Amino acid sequence: NAGVTQTPKFRVLKTGQSMTLLCAQDMNHEYMYWYRQDPGMGLRLIHYSVGEGTTAKGEVPDGYNVSRLKKQNFLLGLESAAPSQTSVYFCASSYWEGVNSPLHFGNGTRLTVT
Amino acid sequence: QQPVQSPQAVILREGEDAVINCSSSKALYSVHWYRQKHGEAPVFLMILLKGGEQKGHDKISASFNEKKQQSSLYLTASQLSYSGTYFCGTESTGNQFYFGTGTSLTVIP
Fold first, then answer.
1. How close A40 comes to chain B (CA, Å)?
2. Average pLDDT, rounded, for chain A
3. Is-contact A35 A89, C-beta < 8 A?
4. pLDDT tens digit string along A10-29?
5. Which residues lie closer than 8 Å to B52 by C-beta, 6 or more apart?
6. HSE of B41 in the Cβ direction (CA atoms, 13 Å)?
């Protein structure tokens, strides 16, 4: 049982390049989330989805886009990468809303933008 | 929107106790606690729901005071394996789930 899988694990981009981070979960979870983690800032919510075909903005959505075309996948896109987007990105999923449903995390993607 | 955690960092000797606090400016429906080891993903510890309940997980327990919009994590008789960064997570309204800034816990022999 893979749980939540993120690809790639590491990536280096030049400023202005684009890329897509893939998150896949095999637990039939409805909710999926993208967070970024920076030193001293904790985990900050970028975008989230409450079900297939839906997406919504979190607290730091600027510069990112997301799509949830299939229930098991949640994609995070950077159209024009900036050095400020250097971070570790975590995807998470939960069966239902977070009130009583634990979040399951992927192992993260370390992105460096030069 | 992020809940506030305190302290930011704490160093303990094995066997000592610690308390980590989490507070929010918004009404809370629940509080989650997670632990993250260096270079790894956060791992779920426990959820506390409205009603002021307390929960325990080995020698780690937590309380939730919904009136004060606060939760506390209690680590008793700490072990080396407790080292890591602890995050509280909260969901108030609108399905958005926010994490605190984290508390770094280091347990030394």
1. 6
2. 93
3. yes
4. 999 999 999 999 999 999 99
5. B63, B64, B65, B66
6. 21
